[in-house]
TrEMBL record:
One of its GO terms (biological process) is defense response to virus. Belongs to the disease resistance NB-LRR family. It holds the Pfam family WHD_DRP. Keywords: ATP-binding, Leucine-rich repeat, Nucleotide-binding, Plant defense, Repeat. The keyword Lyase does not apply. InterPro entries: Apaf_helical, Disease_R_plants, LRR_dom_sf, NB-ARC, P-loop_NTPase, RX-like_CC, WH-like_DNA-bd_sf, WHD_DRP. The keyword Iron-sulfur does not apply. PANTHER family: DISEASE RESISTANCE PROTEIN RP, NB-ARC DOMAIN CONTAINING PROTEIN, EXPRESSED. This is Late blight resistance protein homolog R1A-3. It comes from the Eukaryota. Residues 782-851 form the Disease resistance protein winged helix domain. One of its GO terms (molecular function) is ATP binding. Residues 529-699 form the NB-ARC domain. The lineage of its organism: Eukaryota, Viridiplantae, Streptophyta, Embryophyta, Tracheophyta.
Length: 1238
């Protein structure tokens, strides 16, 4: 419809209103409605479809109002105005469902611009009246607007300012400046006017709706846009129109910026950043605009009030406002024209040059202010420093390849840091290889590691926009300067060829003397009876050749005690011609060792100074004799290599016993006999030893039996700890209260001598670890005492923390981390809690001695902090914090609104408890922006969402337990590698999940996470994803096919296929294809009945649940690499018998049948030639295990779970066990019965 008809109606209404023969209120209301409608019909550009629908609804209402107003007017008036024609047009417009008002962006000329502002002026003038007439709105929404008068004043201010801008533009500017500046002015005015129009539209069509937040918050934003126009006008008048009266007036002098200007300016930049820039002439132009926007956003997000204030700050903010206007002008001009011609490209390029020049001026001004501030470095942990340097260098190299705008801004700094740290790391690593030590060089290495931590904090703070300006303009330049200084110092040292001291042995701990004491020597010995018998057999039987028996165990476990018991055994004394005992320890002299062994073997007291001669004398003295040599406490391969040629093999069953903490040393020295891993004392043995040490020849009083047994158990089977604890208790051995005190705090009451020795035991192990393993060990202190730590969790945490050194080409990070764990286990500082079917460690733990050492050492190193009581804000100043969850966290959250100390990178809660139906972390989570690790899984929290973590962009590991988790929204975590979610309500995945391309491990626990096909439409490949558990699909192939395409490198997969009741699905026609996942090792599938599954041939572990027997046999028949097979809830439709026929599982080690409703099972020993474990769980109807299982030579264990009432099944298992025993003469098969908790 034509807006001219609306103009005619408005003119006519003004005339008839003056006569007073109609209801004035009705006429004024109609006038307002028509003025609003006129604006949106005349200037409908870039209106959204939803808005157009609302405008048409309004048009229909206005048609009714016209009928109402003109109902009592004479026919002459109606004829002259042609009211019926206008009403008809309004109704037709209201019914139009087409696109009559849809326009693309339009660039307005001068006359239209002036008219546009006139219309908006009238609409803003009507706004207060419109609000006043909306009584219902004020009655319901007064609490939202809070201060109506202030709100209306803001609207009036905007109207007056736009009126003045319209006057200046029309009378003073448009005809007096060049075309280029005029276009810039017009772009700013039109952008401002379009936003005012949107505000008026919201007032007009949304007054009777619930959503008023946009209306409420819009005036401050509009004021910001008005100021941007005013700043450009100020520049024009001061530079181009100096003769104008406005130049000399107070119009543009020292104008106070509106409250919240910086925040609204930031909102504008966010809007401009999100605009579609696909039609820019070059990618470079678009990227340059992004870079400019990001720099200004960094400034606005971190206004340096403590550095710049008052008029200086206003001056800087004005410059930022002008720059924002320049950027807006370029984007607006390009979007309005939609042109990519060469002239426009040139203008944009020139405009960007000018913008960057202004930004450099602004940056220089800020740098001058920041130079007055002093940079104070912090103290970071240096343990595992070289590993951290490797991690940082990987990060810097990734940033150099990245294309994000903040990375681009940081690139000049990153290039320098990467160069300096690469050089220093290579030098320090070379020094470590040759085992040089030099105090100056050590100090430089400590300073470099600390500087690297500072650099990471600075970079991450800038990326997270947390105190970003400070780090960009102050700390980062200082760090670069210091790194160059250290590099120069290191270079100078090498050039001067400073003499460095070579060290081939580990230095003794300062807590222990060079000659170790053996608290067990000469004391009562308890335990080790079975171990002694076994090792005696190794020593007296077996091969005639020389053999080495390595005894491996952790410090304080009793290796020396056991070896001493063997050494003094009558059988051993009688069996060997000569014996010698030698302590190797950490530091040793080859000559002294040879001398000691020689003297014991020969009984001579002579000393020989020449090592070669002494070695030859020892070798000759052993020839012809059956000898036993005990080499106690060996720490290094070199010690064995220095001695082994002195021990001749005369084929007479001579033996050497080596005790060591290090599995690698044991592997190196062994010959024919495998390593003997010394077990811990049982509780009874510990109790017996404790009683002997405390009461000597006396009996333990009956009233102390229970508490003394508790204390013995607390010692966890370590003889050394038992001895140390006994030394404490002896002081007040008859007082029960004293026993209880010791039980509660074993390690806080040790006397000085015991404390030194206990510390030294672990200190020696720690000192002997490679640098890269030390942080891995200390990290064990993050877990509670006696915690069984899942290896998969521990490995993911180590990776997230950056503990891994440079990874070998082609090797996965998980494999490297698992290798680290095996090294710690080999060093006997970490214990294996349980293993998987294939021997890999599933759970691990540390002894309390080790745990307390880790906690104490971590405190000294400032490596981490474990909080046992209520957590305080000061606790969060550490790098890593582990604490027991409590509601106290919310108390200090309300006391601070500033981000917590920037060093906090890891936060882990450790205790469980009742669910929280509120979330205390909502108040503090955004104050911890540099977190890498966040584990809140110990406690169930209320509803959580991905948007909640939007500002914590550096997160690599997240573990949560919540009632529901919402993935929807634009937020995502770009660096996340591990995501573990335990949810109690099914959750829908969104596209945000698929943007997290660095994900490696995803585990959805309790209730699955589901998605639909549309989730994948815009997603890209997740090539890093290795583990995906707990996803849910409907039983169709579309989602699965897309998953296979998007995640090609999966190694472990768990899927629940949902039954859709009411839908007619032919399951036999459904084929689930996974064979293209060539890296897949482990699969868990829960699917109904007859669907067919195609798996890759390299599958090693398979769990199938709910399928039919026929589809299962088809699925598993062609899997030659299968090692673990669990069949659960299989449906046997046609028969109750399971016959494997000629199917053979060549490598199967474990077979588990759960809730199987078969009664008969036919299988031969050829079906499972390498089976080691058979588990049958709740198979009520299965009559027996095939007797052929007795002929499987590798079978070691049969485990029956929940089969107590199935007597025939138990009898068949016993028959198999007995037959093996009769045929082979050994009790090879371990039969276990276990109950099942439902």
């Amino acid at each position: 419809m034509a807006h001219n008809d609306i103009e005619d109606m408005l003119d006519h209404l003004r005339r008839i209103k003056s006569r007073g023969d109609l209801n004035v209120v009705k006429i004024e209301t109609l006038e307002m409605e028509l003025r609003f409608l006129r604006t949106f019909i005349k200037y409908p550009h870039a209106l959204l479809p939803d808005s157009l629908i609302e405008i048409r609804k309004k048009a229909k209402l206005i048609a009714e109002m016209v009928h109402s107003v003109f109902g009592g007017i004479s026919g002459e008036c109606k004829t002259s105005l042609n009211v019926e024609r206008l009403v008809s047009e309004l109704q037709e417009f209201g019914e139009d469902n087409g696109t009559s008002l849809i326009y693309i962006n339009v660039e307005l000329n001068d006359s239209f611009m002036l008219e546009y502002m006139d219309y908006l002026d009238q609409n803003l003038n009507d706004a207060p009246k419109y609000l006043v007439r909306s009584v219902a709105f004020f009655a319901e929404k007064i609490n939202i607007l809070q201060n109506t008068d202030r709100y209306l004043r803001q609207v009036k201010i905007i109207q007056n300012k736009i009126r003045f801008i319209r006057y200046l533009y029309g009378a003073e500017i448009k005809d007096y400046i060049d075309r280029e500046k005029l276009e810039g002015m017009q772009a700013r005015i039109q952008f401002m006017a379009d936003n005012v129009r949107q505000f008026c539209l919201a007032l007009w069509i949304k007054m009777d709706e619930d959503g008023t937040s946009d209306i409420e918050s819009k005036p401050p934003y509009l004021l910001c846009l008005v100021v941007i126009v005013e700043l450009e006008m100020k520049k024009i008048f001061l530079c181009e129109l100096k003769a104008s009266k406005f130049t000399q007036s107070r119009t543009f002098k020292d104008k106070k910026l509106p409250k919240g200007f910086s925040y609204q300016l930031h909102c504008l930049l966010v809007y401009l950043r999100d605009k579609k820039l696909d039609n820019f002439p070059t990618i470079v132009s678009a990227q340059n605009i992004d870079v400019a926007i990001v720099f200004l956003s960094v400034f606005l997000g971190d206004i340096p009030n403590h550095v710049i204030n008052g008029n200086r700050l206003s001056e800087v903010l004005e410059k930022v406002g002008v720059l924002a206007g320049d950027i807006l002008c370029i984007i607006q001009k390009q979007l309005l024209s939609g042109s990519t011609i060469k002239d426009d490209a040139g203008k944009i390029h020139l405009g960007m040059i000018q913008i960057f020049e202004k930004i450099e001026d602004l940056k220089a001004q800020l740098e001058r202010h920041y130079k007055s501030l002093k940079y104070r470095p912090s103290q970071f942990p240096t343990v595992g420093g070289l590993s951290f340097l490797d991690s940082l260098l990987r990060k810097l190299n990734e940033m150099l390849k990245a294309k994000t705008c903040l990375d681009f801004i940081l690139k000049p700094h990153i290039v320098i840091l990467e160069k300096e740290f690469s050089y220093l790391t290579s030098v320090f690593r070379d020094v470590a290889k040759v085992q040089h030590e030099h105090e100056i060089l050590k100090d430089l290495q400590r300073r470099t590691i600390n500087l690297a931590y500072e650099a990471e904090v600075a970079i991450d703070s800038i990326l997270a926009q947390c105190n970003a300006l400070w780090h960009l303009l102050c700390s980062l330049p200082t760090i670069i300067k210091e790194s160059k200084h250290i590099s120069a110092e290191v270079t100078r040292m090498w050039s001067e060829n400073l003499a460095l001291k070579s060290c081939s042995m580990v230095e003794p701990s300062k807590h222990m003397s060079t000659q170790p004491k053996n608290l067990m020597n000469g004391e009562e010995i308890v335990g080790f009876e079975n171990d002694t018998k076994k090792i005696i057999r190794y020593l007296t039987r077996g091969t005639n050749e020389l053999d080495v028996i390595p005894i491996v165990g952790m410090g304080g476990q009793g290796k020396t005690t056991c070896a001493r018991k063997l050494y003094n055994n009558d059988i051993i004394v009688y069996h060997f011609d000569v014996r010698a005992w030698c302590v190797i320890s950490q530091t040793y002299s080859r000559r002294e060792l040879l001398q000691e062994i020689f003297n014991q073997v020969t009984g001579s007291k002579d000393k020989v100074d020449e090592v070669g001669k002494l070695a030859d004398m020892l070798r000759k003295s052993l020839i012809g004799k059956r000898y036993l040599i005990v080499l106690d406490d060996m720490w290094d391969f070199m010690a064995w290599d220095d001695l082994r040629l002195c021990f001749p093999d005369v084929v007479n069953r001579s033996r050497i016993v080596v005790t060591t903490r290090l599995e690698k040393v044991g592997e190196h020295v062994k010959c024919h006999t495998d390593l003997y891993f010394l077990p811990f004392l049982t509780s009874e043995e510990s109790w017996e030893l404790l009683q002997k040490k405390v009461f000597q020849n006396e009996a333990c009083p009956p009233e102390l039996h229970d508490v003394s047994l508790d204390v013995a158990r607390r010692c966890k089977g370590l003889p050394l700890v038992v001895v140390l604890v006994a030394g404490i208790i002896k002081k007040k051995k008859m007082e029960r209260s004293w026993w209880n005190e010791v039980k509660k705090a074993l390690f806080s009451c040790l006397d000085r001598e015991s404390e030194d020795y206990s510390w030294a035991t672990m200190q020696l192990s720690y000192d002997n670890l490679p640098d890269y393993l030390r942080p891995c060990l200390l990290y064990m202190g993050m877990f509670p005492e006696d915690e069984r730590i899942p290896v998969s969790k521990l490995v993911s945490l180590w990776i997230a923390e950056g503990f891994l050194q440079n990874i070998e080409s082609g090797r996965l990070t998980e494999e490297t981390a698992e290798g680290y764990l095996m090294d710690l286990i080999s060093s006997n500082v970490v214990m294996v809690s349980s293993r998987r079917y294939n021997g890999k460690v599933k759970y691990c733990q540390v002894h309390d001695v080790v745990l307390h050492f880790c906690l104490e050492r971590s405190r000294e190193e400032k490596f981490m902090l474990v909080v046992r009581g209520n957590i305080q804000p000061s606790d969060l100043k550490e790098s890593r914090v582990s604490f027991s969850f409590s509601n106290e966290l919310s108390k200090f959250a309300s006391k601070t609104r500033k981000p917590f100390h920037q060093h906090l990178r890891s936060l882990i809660t450790t205790n469980g408890g009742e669910s929280l139906y509120w979330n205390p972390f909502n108040q503090v989570i955004n104050l911890m922006r540099l977190l890498k690790v966040l584990d809140l899984s110990s406690h169930k929290l209320a509803h959580l969402s991905l948007a909640m973590f939007e500002t914590i962009i550096h997160l690599k590991y997240v573990a949560l337990c919540t009632d529901k988790f919402d993935f929807h929204g634009k937020s995502y975590l770009p660096h996340l590698e591990t995501l573990i979610l335990k949810c109690y309500r099914r959750t829908q995945l969104s596209t945000s999940f698929w943007k997290m391309k660095k994900l490696r491990h995803v585990d959805f626990i309790k209730t699955g996470f589901c998605w639909e096909n549309q989730i994948f439409e815009e997603s890209s490949k997740m090539e890093n994803l290795r583990i995906l558990r707990g996803v849910e699909f409907r039983l169709n192939t579309d989602c699965l096919n897309v998953l296979v395409q998007r995640c090609p490198n999966l190694e472990e997969l768990e899927i629940f296929f949902l039954c859709e009741y009411g839908r007619n699905i032919d399951e036999e026609k459904i084929c689930l294809k996974l064979e293209s996942l060539t890296q897949l090792q482990s699969v868990r599938l829960f699917y109904p009945l007859s669907a067919v599954v195609h798996l890759p041939s390299n599958i090693k572990k398979l769990v199938l649940c709910g399928a039919s027997m026929e589809s299962t046999i088809f699925c598993i028949a062609g899997l030659p690499s299968l090692e673990y097979l669990q069949l659960r809830n299989l449906n046997v439709i046609e028969s109750e018998e399971w016959c494997l026929g000629d199917i053979t599982f060549h490598k199967l080690k474990l077979l588990k049948l759960s809730y199987f409703n078969i009664s008969r099972w036919e299988a031969s020993e050829e079906s499972f030639p390498e089976l080691e474990t058979l588990v049958i769980k709740v198979c009520y109807y299965l009559e027996e295990i095939p007797l052929s299982f007795a002929d499987i030579p590798t079978l070691k264990q049969i485990k029956l779970m929940g089969c107590t009432n199935n007597e025939s099944l138990l009898a068949s298992a016993l028959r198999i066990k007995n037959e093996v025993k009769e045929n082979e003469g050994c009790d090879r098969i371990d039969l276990i019965e276990a109950t099942v908790m439902y």
